[in-house]
Design goal:
alpha+beta; Murine Class I Major Histocompatibility Complex, H2-DB, Chain A, domain 1; Immunoglobulin-like; 2 domains; eight-stranded antiparallel sheet; six-stranded mixed sheet; 6 helices; 18 strands; elongated; disordered N terminus; binds 2-acetamido-2-deoxy-beta-D-glucopyranose
Length: 337
Amino acid sequence: MHGFLSKMKFIIFFIYITFVYSESHTFTTLYTEINGQAIAGIPEFFAVTTLDGRQIDYYDSEIKKLIPRQDWMKKFMSGDRFKEYNEIRERVQQTNKINITVIMQQFSQSYGVHTYQRMYGCGWEDKTGYSQGFDQYGYDGEDFISLDLKALRYVTAVPQGLITTEKWNNDTAHLKLLNQYYQHECVYWLKHFLMLRKVDLERRAPVVSLLQRHPSSPVVCHATGFYPPGLTITWLKNGQDQDEDVDYGALLPNEDETFQKTSTLIIEPEEWKKNQFVCVVEHMGRTFRKILTENEIKSSTKAVHCCGFTEAVIRLVLSALVGVATVILLVYGIRSS
Ligand SMILES: *[C@@H]1O[C@H](CO)[C@@H](O)[C@H](O)[C@H]1NC(C)=O
Ligand SMILES: *[C@@H]1O[C@H](CO)[C@@H](O)[C@H](O)[C@H]1NC(C)=O
């Protein structure tokens, strides 16, 4: 029914939930404490805040400083809130360090690497105004304790959590504070961050380029990085609208919530070299022009605007797989010989 109400699993290092076109928004903070420093390169404690599945800030016990992960969070982080958010994380790091040893005792564990996590936040639907908080604790990647906001009580998924839920449920004043937070403050901040993001996106003008795969292929006028999505691309031939031999591409979303769009001119290079062709992009009352000349064209194979990142990742994964396969073959080769 509501996307953000579905039971969430604790994921140790990443939470990546995308809500590209959805009407519901989520604002989540995840704290992760790992006892000891058993895993090289991974901090003992880290905190990640996300808005609609995208990181907006990050903190860990090594850097000891809250880092904005979006441009629009930089301004926010330069204010008083930065100090407060930083202090909260420092405190959580200290208490969780002790908590994890207490929980280990409750599970009759005396050694080993263990993780203790808290994921809390709220969801909000902009159409209905419906909102819902969530506050869940996990231990070793499994559900441990969660706050039932309807009953305003903590419930445990495992018998080892009973001592804690009994203690926490006894503190009625604190439960009321949490209820207040999830009903009001949390939704207030969610909307505040949505607003900051929107204001930031509203300033995104398109980057326009002319692309061509080979010297004889059609020329693509490519606009990317713009927001809001309303944008038109037209071609002019010697100052007149060129409607024929034009292929309009679909509007596509980018990774960073901006959009991209293309318009392809399907004519022979001899013809556009003899005439003046101009790609005209209109966005938010502004006009961007690119006159079609050989110098202006970028080769598509070199262009990074479209799919560059994904392609790079795929290549990395593929080369890693090839590497692994080579090692396996070598090992088996040596064994069988
Ligand atoms: C963690 O520590 C805090 C502060 O000492 C305490 O209030 C809380 O109940 C502890 N949590 C657990 C799960 O033991
Ligand atoms: C709950 O609170 C009562 C009275 O405030 C106290 O006597 C009792 O020991 C508490 N129970 C727990 C589990 O903390």
